[in-house]
Amino acid sequence: MRERRWARERCRAREFELFVAGAAGRLLHAATLLTGEPDDRPAPAAEKLLVCALSRTYAAWDGLRGEDPYDRARQELAARFAHTAWRHRRPRGGLLDRLSPQERLVLVLRLYEDVAEEQTAAQLGLPAERVHALCLRAVARMCSRRPHPSSVPAAP
Questions:
Q1: In angstroms, rounded to a whole number, what is the distance separating the alpha carbons of residues 31 and 97?
Q2: Which domain, by its residues, includes 47?
Q3: How far, in Å, CA of 88 to CA of 36, rounded?
Q4: CA–CA distance from 12 to each of 8, 19, 58, 142 (Å)?
Q5: 153 vs 145, more confident
């Protein structure tokens, strides 16, 4: 009995390792975009975010039952980021750091991860119209040359 349980645990761990080997790079890049850290340097906040998301995915691994593990890990990543978004408000020099955390989250889910608007809205608990507006505003801000208001030094 104990041997079967250990064999099942080893199989579970091996499946998860294979999943992480294939998905961790893309998930880390998404986490880096979310945290606003530069791509050319180590991203400790993104790595911490990814480790939390992957640990929660592993904890639910047996219960996925046909669910795409990448979708689950992405949902965990987005939920963890939304929960800790206040930590990611100040600019860090990353590609999306001029956006608010909510705009970053919507933009990464919609454009980088190609999640449907309705699915993004359901995951974030927002109306689809709000997700659409946030996405449009984020794209417009990225296309403009004006810096994010929080990155402009205050006048003396």
A1: 12
A2: 2-148
A3: 7
A4: 6, 11, 9, 42
A5: 145
Q: Measured between alpha carbons, how far is 127 from 103 in angstroms, rounded to an integer?
A: 14
What is the longest distance spanned by two Cα atoms in the chain? 72
| pLDDT reported for residue 150 | 54
Residue entry with tokens 């978004």: 85
147: pLDDT strictly greater than 60: no
Q: Domain for residue 59, yes or no? A: yes
Segment holding 34, helix H or strand E: helix 2-35
Number of domains forming the structure of the chain: 1
How many residues appear in the chain? Answer: 156
- CATH code, domain carrying 10: 1.20.140.160
List, for residues 6-37, the tens digit of each pLDDT value.
888 888 889 999 999 999 999 999 999 999 88
- 53-62, 78-87, 94-103, 138-147: which range is least confident on average? 138-147
Instruction: For residue 40, tell me if it sits in a domain.
Output: yes
